[in-house]
Sequence to fold (340 residues):
Amino acid sequence: MFFKSIFQGNLQFGNVKSYDKVIKMYDHRVENYYKNDVLFKLEDIFNEGELTLKLPRTVVNITDKNWKNSVDLLQYVAQFAISGNIGAWMTEEGKILKYVWIEPKGDKAVVQKFLKGRSLVDQVGKEKEAEETLSNAIELYDRHAQAYERRGYVNFLMKKYHDADRDFTKSVNIDVSNAPAYYGRAKIKMLKEEWSEAIDDLELAIKTSLALQDVHWSARRRKGECLQQLGRFEEAEFEFRFFNKRTFKEKSPNAVYKRSTLFNHGKVLLELGKHTEALDAFEKTMKAKSGLDTISEADMLVYRGLARKQCGKNGFVSDWNEAKKLGSAMAIKLLQDQAK
Fold:
């Protein structure tokens, strides 16, 4: 039986000695352990000039045994690398059957510094220590794209936006497929209200990631927000609709933005004159779990009322009166206009 499988990523070996060793071991294991039942040929993925293993996005239908052999072999060679990562997915009808994230985990100093720094990134109060540890990894290997990206994220958390932008840029200059770095740089541009420039980076994040990855959907959501700011409502509506059709697991970082994206989708639909669809979006917003958003109940009532009125439905005055009780200046203005 064949399964749709996706492979993507790269590994850096850093020096000729490690590279030569991994070439010999790869060739030996392909012939003696796996009897050539692997997906990737040595000459197709190794680059002697750059001392790297590169896997451009590869989508194939292969057997379970071929998938397992290929993953085992990539995991084996990763122990000789000092940076990089490879993702491997096996899917069936859009559902992930198997997923493996392959990266260096050996005892080399640069690897250990990076892993320690990355583990500190999300620990509250450990941001400075994380930055210093990731800097140590970069000092040991100055082409560590993942260390630059993670340090950029730490700098972003510490509101050191110039340093964060520098790190994200260095990361993508080394690894043009590093979607999280494009996404991080886009967030800085959004803070500066550089909407068009942010969209450029978000499109790169979307292009270099898979729809199976959280960063892909985070970038689509943010792209919709930028398009909304620019008044490009048709394009924003597409991104919001695409995002809202997706079911996210509770642990996904995108799950907490479902309500805000439903709300923004409704506002864009109103702008486009799609009032019935807008009302549906606002109804779903009212029922959605609160997440990482600042949408007040008053705002939801105001916009649901607007959609109800545009659809010729009753209840909009009640919505605005409820919003007025909650202190909405917009509701007060709408009620005054309605009374004229």
